Amino acid sequence: MFASVTKLKEIANTARYPGDEKLQTKLLEDGKIKRYIEDNKKSYKTSSDHSYQLLLSHCMQVTQKSSPYLFKTIDRCTEILDLRDHELSVFIDSNRDINAWCRKSENRVTIGLNSGLIDCMEFEELCFIVGHEFGHAFYNHHLLPAYGICQDLKLTPSKLLTLMSWSRQSEISADRAGMLCADSLDASVQALIKLSTGGLGKGIIAFDVDEFEKQLDDIDSFIDENSDLMYTTHPLNPFRVRALIEFSKLSDFSNKKTKGSLDLDDINLQIDKIIEKMNPSEIKAHNEKNAEEKKTTPMDLFMVYAGYWVLSADREGSGEELASLEDICGIELVDSIKPVGGLSLDRDQTYDEFKKILDGDLKKLKKSEKCTILETLVSIARADGEISKLERVALDEMAGLIDMDVSFIDGILKFLD
Ligand SMILES: [Zn+2]
């Protein structure tokens, strides 16, 4: 037990991870995204009303009478996350997958719990899951429909990277809401384990939170060991577990005023540090900084050649694809590699160029850098709305060249499609 319900409520109001809020605000200010949301408001409302009607006719609704047990879970989460003034509907979906979902439309919050999920979770674990789903509604994540935006909009690579980064960071906030509702770190981690193993928990899956915590001292080695997993949507993402452990050190949890307790700013700073180190937009930021000093790093050069090589797998250097390269690498750098007279680059030559850098200056790439490279290349290739077969072949080849598994690319594409 961390704290009283009153205290938990208070914490929930300030617990949203600032990085999540910052990126969401930035993305919501983007003209293209703004227009998309405005244009889809009406159709979203219609489809949400329609699916609500379907749920009413196909699924069992949770009420105090139909399931006092589940009602207690919902009631607890509603109380802690202050959603009492919302029109709440909870449905049991007869589906054996270990899953839950939540939708918010205006003042209505609808949550679906699969029967398979309800079956395998203990009370507190279920509170974590419901709290996590409500957390998305509580922190207004629905204002930025990442999935629809990815499907329907052609975003510049840098915007797409920001959107993917935001999506990961929004999970941190939702997990915090979940943990406040579960009122237990162990139950929260157990719930994540069960989500990722199809419902298997203690006794079968060995995951020792204390043992995991002991390995967290060194951020660099943590990132190096886990960076590929940190990009996945897998529930037992080490980054999410770590973020939960950090959050459990919050000094506001009354009985946790021990030596290791931290205030919220310190905890957020810890998370910032990790995100900064695996920041996908680092290449561009790096480039902007260096543009003033007129210095191009080997990584900049590698990205511009590698990016061109992936893009030109199926089409010869059109204006559109160069624009997406410019978005990531900067216009000057892209200009600098163009042959005199503005002719198209030779693809084999760009391969030789980036391979030379890879075998030279970038010989000792860190795993986090490899992840950034692949995620960036995926976003460059996806700038025209899809990744063609030939681009995919090039991406896979690149993964092989930097000694990464192609499943990492699958993981990123899973988020996008
Ligand atoms: Zn979530």
Task: Describe the protein.
With 417 residues, the chain is mostly helical. It contains 21 helices and 4 strands. It folds into 2 domains: 5-278, no CATH class; 281-416, TerB-like, CATH 1.10.3680. The chain has a 4-stranded mixed sheet with strand order 1-2-4-3, sandwiched between helices. Strand 3 and strand 4 (108-114) form a beta hairpin. Bound molecules: zinc ion. Zinc ion is lined by residues 132, 136, 171, 174.
Cofactors, ions, other ligands: zinc ion
The proportion of residues forming helix, as a percent range, comes to 55-70%
Give the number of helices: 21
Radius of gyration: 23 Å
The succession of helices and strands, N to C, reads: HHHEHEEEHHHHHHHHHHHHHHHHH
Count of separate structural domains: 2
- Indicate the proportion of strand residues: 5-15%
* Mean of residue pLDDT values: 87
Query: How would you describe the shape?
Result: globular
Number of strands: 4
Straight-line N-to-C gap? 40 Å
Spatial strand sequence of the major β-sheet:
1-2-4-3
Low-confidence stretches: 280-286
Sketch the major β-sheet.
4 strands, mixed
Assign the structural class, choosing from mainly alpha, mainly beta, alpha/beta, alpha+beta, or little secondary structure: mainly alpha
